[in-house]
Each structure stands twice: as C-alpha cells, then as structure tokens.
Amino acid sequence: MHLVIGDDNFGKIREKNLDFVDKSLFIKTVLDDIETEVSLITRPRRFGKTLNLSMLHHFLAAEVGGLSTKDLFKGLKIIQAGEKYSAQQGKYPVIFITFKEIKESNFAMAYDRLYELILKIFDGFSYLIDSSELTDRQKRSYQLILNREANQAQIAAALQLLTECLYQHHKIKPWLLIDEYDTPIQAAYVNGYYDEMMIFIKGLFGAALKSNSALHRSVITGILRIAKESLFSDLNNLTAYSMLTDEFSEHFGFTETEVKSLLQQAELKHLYDDIKAWYNGYIMGTKTVVYNPWSIANCIKNRGNLKPYWINTSDNVLIKLLLQQADGYIKEKFEQILQGDTIEALINENMAFGDLYDNKEAIWSLLLFSGYFKVVNANQGEDLDIKCLLASPNKEVDSLYKNIISKWFTDKAGQKQYDSLLRNLVEGNIEEFKAIFQRFLLETMSFFDATETHPEKFYHGLVLGMIVSLSNTHIIKSNHESGFGRYDVMIIPKDKSKLGLIIEFKATNKEDDLENAANTAMKQIEDRQYETELKQHGINNILKLAMAFKGKDVYILQKD
To answer: Where are the domains of the chain?
Structure first.
C-alpha cells in the first residue's frame, strides 16, 4: 500500500497511481455553494487542506504545470456525481497560491519569499504578455513583476492584476485559490513583525477579493479566521466554515468508514481499537467524527506503530510557547483535562492574536481550531462567543499536554531534581521525596498561583501534573471510585511487583493543623478502603500517602 504522506500535489498523486482517500466530493460541496463568492475554510494543520485545494485546482483548470487534467478524475466520486459537475472540469482559468512555507524570522525575508511566490505564479501565465486583449498599462505592470522591479504596493495589487488579465484574455472569470493564508501571519506574530505583515496581507487580499468584478470565486484555507484585526472586515462577500460548522465536515480528516477501509487494505484491522484511541476523536460540525489523517497515514506506513506523529511535527511553536507561559488559571484547567474531564470555555471563531496574552479565554479558541481540543457540546453565547465543553481528542494530543506539563516543572526545578523527585516517590523513599518536593514548593509556588477558592483542587492538580511523566511505567488515575469512595490520585505500576501508591490531599489555613489534616486524609484512605482497586490489579505492595498543605508548607503521612 502506497498511501500519500506529505505530497500535496493532486496531479502527481494520480499520475503515480498512489493510494489516497477519495475526497473529491469536496469539489461538489464547493460548486454547490453558488451564493458564496469567497469561502474561508479553517481546519487544523495537516488535515488535508493543501491537497484538497490542489484537487480543486486540477478539477477547474484544463492544464496544471503544462499537463492536461482531463483524465485525473476518472473513477472518482465527483465524476460519479453527474454531468452537472463533470461538465465544469477544465473550464476555468485558476490562480493557486500556497503560503504554507512562509515562516521567516523577519518581515524583509518573508516579503522576499512572498514576492518569489507571486513571481512564480505570474511566470506560469506569461503568455498573457503577448495577449492582444490586455492593455499596455496591464502589460507594463505585468512585466515589472516578472523583472523583479515592482514595489510593495504593486505586489499587494498583483493578484487583482492577474485576475483582470486572465478574464480579459480568456473571457472567463478566474478562480483564486489561496492555501494556508494565515501561516505567514502566525510566523509574524511569533517573530515580532506582526503589524507589518498584517498591513501587507490585508492589502493583497483586499485588492484581490473585495468588489473584484474580474473574479469568479475564491476559496481560502487556513487554521484560524483572523477577523478582529480587520483582515477580512471589508469583505461582505465572505462566508467562513470552521470546525464548528457542518459544511465541509467530512472533507478534511478521515471518517470512520475511510479508516476501516485503509486498515483493511493494509492488513492492520486488528489494531483498530488502539488506532482509534490514538488518532480519532475530532468532531467537525455538530456530529462528524474524524481521525487525524497525517497520523493515520504515518501509522499505516510504519505498520501500526503507535506514536505521536502529528504532535511531533514542528508546526506547533505558538502552542508550546503559550502553554509554557501559562498562568495558574490555565494550569488549573489542564488539571481537569489530565483527568479526562471536560472544561468549559467561550470560543470565538474570529481569532485575535492580540488577545492571546490579555484574554485568558482566547487560548482555548486557538487550541480548539489548531486541533488540540474537541467540542463535546456547544451553545451560542452572548455576542460572537460560543459556550463550549472541550476535551482532549485522543492519546496523541494527551502526549503533548504531558510533555508541556512536565516542562512546567523541569523548567523551574531542573531535570535532575525532577527525575529524583519521581524516582523517590515510586520507590517509596518518602523522606527524600518530601525534601525535594518541599524545596520545589518554596522556590516555585508563586509561579503556579494557588487559588484561594479551591486550594485542594490546586494541590491536586499540582501533584497530578508533576507525576504525569510516570505514564510510561505506571497508570495514573485521579478521582476514581475504589472501595467505598473516590480517591484523589492512584499510581498503579504496570509491573505488578512494584510499589502502588494512593495519595489523598487536604489543605488547611490553620498554622498548627497540618498534622491533623494529614491524619484526617489517612483515615479517609483507610476507612473507605481505597486500596481495593490496587489489589484488583494484583498489586500487593501498597503505600498510602496523606499530603496536607498550607501555602508553601507540606506535611506527608505514610502507611503501608
């Protein structure tokens, strides 16, 4: 099986007869949306945006790269959809531009790359220079770009110029396809030249898309809808389709049926349940559940080896940066996620980068639309906000959260201290564990911002985050039923000969009450027989820990 990985050129895939999932009904959905002049479709990275747009390009244009597209769609679903659609194959001039590689560290370099992209596109239509249908002014402007002599204002107007030239030459209005439009904007935000990039991109899009009588239609893809900064504010003809809308829901990512078919072909059907747990869980629109296509393709290529393929790609710099700088409010929310619970958040489909540090809720919108959460339930709130219940979609994303949460600790305590802390805990060396843990609290507690309203919940989350790195050798459970109650944290060794731990937390505001609080927690462990679950797992070597907290002080009581 030769499943496509990383090659987003539809023509090459078909010419080489490579295996791919037939998403050609995406074209039908686009063509049926006749009332929309500009469609903005947002999906997470590596969910098939570039390949789908390349497929649309090859369908609409008679030639791409000098090669005929006539036979590329034989046997695909779009041709089977009927004459209404097949009759439109190869009938339009098409401008296709992808910004997915514009990730430069400064504006000058990014602008040079953008100029080269536009130059390449203009070079592909160089026959227009000799067209008798173009005016002398249009030919001069066109030649300036080809000669690398155009100024920034002329480059900003380049796509509008090209649509006019194509329309006048062919007498058919062209399509404009823009892929990953927000990649240079995100790079600009991370690298500190955001305002310059926004001015340029707004001029480029505004000229090409607003009231352009030479343009037939445009389809734009990206991860986020960037609207608050007025990038699209002047476009009354734009319709946005995010992960929260039903339109296009089956066209990005692999559906259950598609994955089962792929696993059958690859003779990996026996791994279906594990693969589902690792890569499924994304919900598009109100009910369409999809798998991460990048991870599925890599997993199949590697004969079912389960690992975080998508998370390990290098395109999540902004996400890691924001999470590593998160405050106590964000960390408390992630304590819930680590337990497999949902969190409630206000989601705004119109992303504003300026809000990411000022508005605590903005990070949830970024994480959702970037593919790091799924929506369990959504209700329209006030204004533009949508009240959503969010959860981690799968084990692959969990692995990123565990990595980042571990980094919250290692950045402050140091890797050697952190490793020593965990080793002493699981080996039952509680005095040594307490000494390191106490030092950690004294040095870093302000960084974690304990809340006065739910102090036990804070310490619970603190310890849970600290031990998340044990998941390779231990099963970490939190707030589960065992015996006659619900314990706080249980650490179950995968090797049954190793030590199992039960941890209960108490917080107090009284100066002299730490020992009493720890005794109360230990009594709760024993009276409610929390060790029952460990014994059911075949663990007989059990250590009970009662941890009492007051601010930066901790008292730990232990019993076998």
So the answer is: 10-241, 254-301, 317-396, 414-559
